## 1
Amino acid sequence: MSVVVVGNGMAGTRFAADLRALDPHRPLVVFGAEPGRAYNRILLPEVLAGRLTPDDLALPEPSGALDLRTGVTVTAIDPDRRVVYADDGSRTRYDALVLATGSRPVIPTVKGLCRDDGSLVEGAAVFRTLADCRRIVAAARGARDVVVLGGGLLGLEAARGLARRGLRARVVHARGHLMERQLDLDASHILTSTLAELGVEALLEASTAAVVGDEDGRVRGVVLEDGNRIPADLLVVACGVRADTGLAVNAGLRTGRGIVVDDRMRTSDPAIHALGDCAEHRGRVYGLVAPAWEQARVAAGVVAGLGGRYAGSRLVTRLKAPGVDLATMGDPHVRDEATEVVTFADPARHVYQKVLIRERRLVGAIMLGDNPSVGTVTQLFDRDAPVPVDARSLLFARPGTGPAANGSPGVPAAGDTLCRCNGVTAGGIATAWLAGARTTEEVARVTRASTGCGGCRDTIEGFVAALSAGPAHTPAPEEVVA
């Protein structure tokens, strides 16, 4: 049975790797519209900040036989004949088709932002692909002022990365506080002041009325609805994304906010699956890497004939901006009598902590700033485990003293998840280390740890160093699990 994957991004690549692990000999064709090998899109802000190079983002390629067609765009699907058509003139038949088409950036309707043909004017760019990132980095070399439209996760990461390159960065956000989906107002206030000290000014409740250009049509600033003009010789558009459902719509598949799938990641056509940013499961489009990889694992099992069900994901979002430590979990906006809310704020130290508890389980959390307890809180949320009777201990636990500790300060228990994106435990890393993977890079190749959002890399490096320091830092043999 032949399998075709449309999309060579993080979701499509992971599906191909998972399928290859389950069924090494299944004919597999992967189409990727972008040229070159697959890369970690989540780490693009690190390239923008100059902390990583594009080569550092390359994802491991699936082992075994693979017909990989990069730089080729699938233009249509014929579900009746089970054929996909591509812009290279090819027609490829499938028995199972996986759509991992991702999402497209939202371009706001702002006067002067786009040319007559719909393309962005010179000096303006979206921040979605590696090509976008390269264009922004090239433009930044001759720029002084950058304006970022959008105060969500990606917009803040872009602004901080460019500020780190020496540009004067301003974020223009139409809402009353930053990252309004993930943060409450108090957390936003502290994040705003943190960013200001790092060279990023946030303009809130500020709607953009027009983009101003020079006689050559190049960006020179934006005009807000209140009449204020903000100078800019570089404009980054980060106003959110929408699931790329074009192929599915034209093929007659059921769509909503994304391509609608069931618990087996099947679309309204059982021979076609969808996963990642383009998929809508139980009314939700996640748009994060960890859910995409969980979906890929389920879809690979189903396509391989082994079954599997996807019941949804528990969301942990991290802001990847140098100098800012922020993790949010679940829904931090819950307000009802059954939910206990515990908060701690220290604006002078740029620290804000908030946990929301219902029936002794975490339903949401915001951890901003230097929070030694963030690992414990994340573990409890991931596992849906009961929290301590005194919830204040969640906010002030020191490393190694929380529920996840195994009795040795600073040493994680074997079952503690150190890389959430890939579900890699301390025991799994210890097993790889004992088998000869002695560096962080070698551990990553064996376990995939730190190859997702990258937020755990410091933790992984610290744990590998601890393992190298001696047996006292290694989980007990009977606890070590792959």
Note: The CA atoms of residues 110 and 210 lie 5 Å apart.
## 2
Amino acid sequence: MSPEQAVTLVGHAISVILLMVSVLILPSLVVGLVVAIFQAVTQVNEQTLSFLPRLLVTLLTIILAGHWLLQEITDLFLFVFSAIPVEVG
């Protein structure tokens, strides 16, 4: 395997991982920001108030995007294993 092929494979894997993580993290980040603004306005400093909505949004995102996330990781897995005979032989 040449260095260019290895870099391409690792770059593809990292882009898939970043895409998957961003799908899970961005909705939680937005809800956390909204809750933080609400807490700043009302001066309520309760830790569970910021944790529970983010947890629920993350779980809802996993439920809604789970099929797509699994498909993406499966495609990456198949791409890597289909490239093994080409790269070794």
Note: The chain has one domain: 3-71.
